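@channel sequence for tomorrow's demo:
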Amino acid sequence: PSRMNPYRNELEVALYALAATRAVILAGYRRVAVETKHDGTDVTAADRDAETALRAVLARHFPGDHVFGEEHGGSAEAARSGRCWICDPIDGTTWFT
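structure tokens (generated this afternoon):
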């Protein structure tokens, strides 16, 4: 990392991870069944699959980091024990479906 941007690598990986989820999200747009989660909010397979794709990229590039996501959760304890990525690739499923 440079002194000008100490998180340059993280930014590049985050942008790559977002690009990796794009195909998953677009494939599911308005074509998937909506389920209701236990908290009463909507979820689709695209929600889950997009987060899975994002997690895979982050795990490959930053294996020691933790991920906390809306669909697959994460441990609050783990999040406090080191760097943690917070992800929700499709925010607002109601507008997505």
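heads up for whoever presents: The mean pLDDT is 83.
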